[in-house]
Amino acid sequence: MTDFHVLHNKTVAFIGGGNMAGAMIDGLLTAKRCHHLALSIGVSDKNADKRDRFASQGVLTATPDTAHQLMTQADMVVLAVKPQVLMEVAPSLAPHLADKLVLSVLAGVPCATLQRVLGCGRVVRAMPNLPSALGAGATGLYADQGVSSLDKDMCEMVMTSCGVAVWVDDETKLHAVTAVAGSAPAYFFYVLEHMIAQAMTMGLTADDAHRLAVQSMVGAGLLAKDANPQALRMSVMSKGGTTAQAISSLERDDVGGAFGRAMMACYDRSVELGELFDDK
């Protein structure tokens, strides 16, 4: 079974120091401490305040003009710029990526496009989500042809450092990952908004409603981690009880169908955005 020691004596360079890169770097720093890894981490970003913050954590830093110094030494380059600036930065990155393992967190940008504009042959795409910032992320991974088992192990451990990572065997399945994980935190926040608002109309204070609703969702998630959600739901319900009444109301309103349609809308939009970068 793969463990974090696959990153021992490795160098990981991040191009872009935004929120997702910061979450991944925090995860790697934690793994480095906990597993006693000789792991070197670098990041290139144009923002001086971000560079100072990373440097205070022991991370090597560079400006975009000196990013090549990080990439030259790296075993893995994590591409974490905004997708819309890819074409702008590609000419300065490409000369240094031909022999590098590239892990991309650029939403919607296919492997073929990355290979074409960056001249790299070993590409892994990652689709992480917002809870990665707390080490509780859910990430889908896809490896293109030319990526070795060791490359995959390294990418998996980078993403595991900030949550759970699963592999898909077809790049198009990353659209499904977006629907079930990438965008999913917003679904839960939406449900929480309405639960809290309704609890307040029933007389609870905003603070009490928020604490109770959030903790209920956290607790339910923990229970569901290693159990069947349907079986858990049935264990809470008793015939003619309060929960049964609530579920009956949800079923009459086709809430399950609404979630399915919402996820499909997310999937379809992910496909549309991906086509903007398609090499056709």
UniProtKB/TrEMBL annotation:
Transmembrane segments: none annotated. Its main location: cytoplasm. Pfam families: F420_oxidored, P5CR_dimer. The keyword Aminoacyl-tRNA synthetase does not apply. Its EC number is 1.5.1.2. It comes from the Bacteria. One of its GO terms (cellular component) is cytoplasm. It comes from Moraxella nonliquefaciens. Pathway: Amino-acid biosynthesis; L-proline biosynthesis; L-proline from L-glutamate 5-semialdehyde: step 1/1. Residues 171-273 form the Pyrroline-5-carboxylate reductase dimerisation domain. It catalyses: L-proline + NADP(+) = (S)-1-pyrroline-5-carboxylate + NADPH + 2 H(+); L-proline + NAD(+) = (S)-1-pyrroline-5-carboxylate + NADH + 2 H(+). The keyword Oxidoreductase applies. NADP(+) binds at I15, G16, G17, G18, N19, M20, A80, V81, K82, P83. Catalyzes the reduction of 1-pyrroline-5-carboxylate (PCA) to L-proline. Residues 11-108 form the Pyrroline-5-carboxylate reductase catalytic N-terminal domain. The gene is proC. One of its GO terms (biological process) is L-proline biosynthetic process. Belongs to the pyrroline-5-carboxylate reductase family. GO terms for molecular function: pyrroline-5-carboxylate reductase activity. Keywords: Amino-acid biosynthesis, Cytoplasm, NADP, Oxidoreductase, Proline biosynthesis. This is Pyrroline-5-carboxylate reductase. It is found in: Cytoplasm.
